Amino acid sequence: MDLADITPLVLTYNEEVNLARCLARLAWAREVVVVDSRSTDGTKAAASRHGNVRFLERPFDHHTAQWNFGVDQITTDWVLALDADYILEAGFEQELAALQPAAELAACAASFRYCINGRPLRGTLYPPRLVLFRRAKCRYEQDGHTQLLRAGGPVAALRTRILHDDRKPLSHWVWSQDRYARLEAEKLAATPGARLGFNDRLRRTIVLGPPAVLLYTLFARGVILDGWAGWYYALQRTLAETLLSLRLIEAKWAASGTKAPMPKPTNDAG
Predict the structure, then answer these.
(1) Cα–Cα distance, 149 to 130 (Å, whole number)
(2) Are strands 6-12 and 78-83 parallel, antiparallel or unpaired?
(3) CATH superfamily ID and name for 3-164
(4) CA distance 259 to 33
(5) Most buried of 1, 48, 75, 170, CB within 10 angstroms?
(6) How open is the CA angle 208-128-148, to the nearest 5 degrees?
């Protein structure tokens, strides 16, 4: 595949701490399209340091519309869709150049190595994602708290992985996860149980999800061997699952017309 037929697409909002590392691994691209949701930090300045970047701004409504807007700005046959905290591992562009995709192939998925403060972990709960796709065959659709790329044809897997290395502060992560939890809770509450997979049925029990995630992340994914970085990741995922459980309880209250219980007033004077 000719690398000139691929345009990387990166979405940003206050990604100053991540974007430079992402763009540094995209120097091979003739053009990189960055769609920014009107960041208030140094994201635009970080992008401007790279001569192959076309920086576009669009007010954020939801991720699906933002991704599809970005895709519509691209004219090459192939799109490489990346979050700003994705960093291509060494050899990724060489694998792309060696691809000889069949005419019917719609997209390729990549696996990830999750990093905590720059340190790759042994395992992750982060699933493979369709990152490389034919512009004419794919479109983004909303799926719970995130977007889903709907591929209009067969998909393949890439061998070279991508690093997921978010350096934003924990407070920002918590804010983002709560926002995601609200959307995911709405999806789980509205979907019939028969249409849910095992993991989502487990999450909808409310009480089983958080401890299951903690044990699975530590032991099944092996991050307990990664020291404090592994514990940090496992506790992050458990907190995210706990936020979802709390939002599911709120959804139950809303569906039944029950208001959330208010604490009784106490006399702290004595």
Answers:
(1) 7
(2) parallel
(3) Spore Coat Polysaccharide Biosynthesis Protein SpsA; Chain A (3.90.550.10)
(4) 46
(5) 1
(6) 85
Q: Are strands 129-134 and 138-143 parallel, antiparallel or unpaired?
A: unpaired
List the structure tokens of 199: 């993991």
Which residues lie below 8 Å from residue 56, measured CB to CB, with a gap of 6+? Answer: 33, 34, 35, 36, 70, 73
pLDDT in tens, 139-188: 999 876 678 999 999 999 999 999 999 999 999 999 999 999 998 999 89
- Asked if residue 33 lies in contact with residue 7, where contact means CB atoms within 8 angstroms, the answer is yes
Structure tokens at 114: 């999750």
| 31-87 pLDDT, tens digit each | 999 999 999 999 999 999 999 999 999 999 989 999 999 999 999 999 999 999 999
- What is the Cα–Cα distance from 202 to 213, expressed in whole angstroms? 10
Domain boundaries, the chain: 3-164, 170-256
Closest CA to 26 of 9, 14, 42: 9
